[in-house]
Amino acid sequence: MKTKLFCGEEISCLGMGNMRLPVNDEKKIDFDAAAAIIDRLYNSGVNYFDTAYVYHGGESESFLGKAMKKYPRESFRLATKFPYFVGKAPTEVFEEQLKKLDTDYVDFYLLHAVGDSNADGYLNEGALDYFREQKKLGRIRHLGFSFHGSLDTLRRFVAANDWDFTQIQLNYMDWTLQHGKEQYEILTEAGIPVVVMEPVRGGRLAKLTPDTEAELKAVHPDWSLPSWAFRFLMRLPNVKVILSGMSTLEQAEDNAKTFTEGEALSDEDTALLLEVCERYKKQVSVPCTGCRYCVDDCPMGINIPEMMEIYNKFKLNGRHAAKAIEKQEPNAKDCIGCGACAALCPQGIEIPKVMEELREAVKED
Predict the structure, then answer these.
(1) From the CB of residue 208, how many other CB atoms can be counted at a distance below 10 Å?
(2) Model's pTM, two decimal places?
(3) Is 338 helix (H, G, I), strand (E, B) or coil?
(4) Which pLDDT band, with edges at 50, 70 and 90, does 365 fall under?
(5) Which of 99, 222, 235, 318 has its CB surrounded by the most CB atoms within 10 Å?
(6) Best CA proximity match to 355, nearest among 317, 298, 274
(7) Distance between CA atoms of 346 and 113, rounded to whole angstroms?
(8) Which residues contact 356 (CB under 8 A, 6 or more apart)?
(9) In the predicted structure, residue 6 carries a pLDDT above the cut 90
(10) What pLDDT, on a 0 to 100 scale, did the predictor assign at position 325?
(11) CA distance readout (Å), 200 to 98, 230, 282, 296
(12) Would you say 346 and 292 are in contact if contact means Cβ atoms under 8 Å apart?
């Protein structure tokens, strides 16, 4: 397993994200299936395991605490996050997290999903001061933040503290689409190490269109599509850990192989990948990663990521694909356009407009 020196420690370049674990019929984490993924990755050399207070409805931290108990605490690193948006005090959340994770300290602790709307709250309402104190006490080893916002907010947040690291959404699509290159450069110039989330864009880059897939397969037939995405990020020296939210053992096997045997993309392969991406972006109009931040506050209970997926298929395959919304209840036709979802979307998607277009497509067909 490839490693890098990160915050003075030897850390695996592949990290496991615990946001998309396998679930059972009741939508609860399938402990045995998820633990098998943990075990496969740990035994391959992965030592960075990332979770958050809100993942899997609050179940992810407890799962991870139990799943890692069989291993010596000093042999792995835990990362979790404080969510300003849940409206709880930092003290309450942090103490609960330590209990769920069954640990006395967190190796990498982040302020979660910092953006334009909540940056002032994080900086001015005591959270940062509290976690600085926890770091002094040794209950947090390294303090950082995960980011979904504008470049101006990123610059302001970088200047607000002596951060140990920052986590950003970065992949070959967002390198240009969501100012990924600029975010990376701002952090690198500030001397802040980068952890990458959404390297395969919530699975979107694991399956392209038939023609774009064929172009890549023609060059490297043995590489999986996620492998292309990871190898692109391997080119960036300030990227220390690349998180992947793996839901199956097959994904874990493929990722472990990439980070054990694979090398960074060549200049020629990088140029090809970015050309292919530009063609693909024209065919995929909604950059939804399936994070589900939008779902809980929807007054109609719509499975919004499912609607976004149907929308992308509709844009690619024609109006008949929009009919798939009718297999879901409630669906886009039930949207009241309140905008609660759009306010929470890290990707800045104008969700009500997408819902309206889906409704009109179904009418027209």
Answers:
(1) 20
(2) 0.83
(3) coil
(4) very low
(5) 235
(6) 298
(7) 8
(8) 335, 337
(9) yes
(10) 94
(11) 30, 8, 18, 24
(12) no
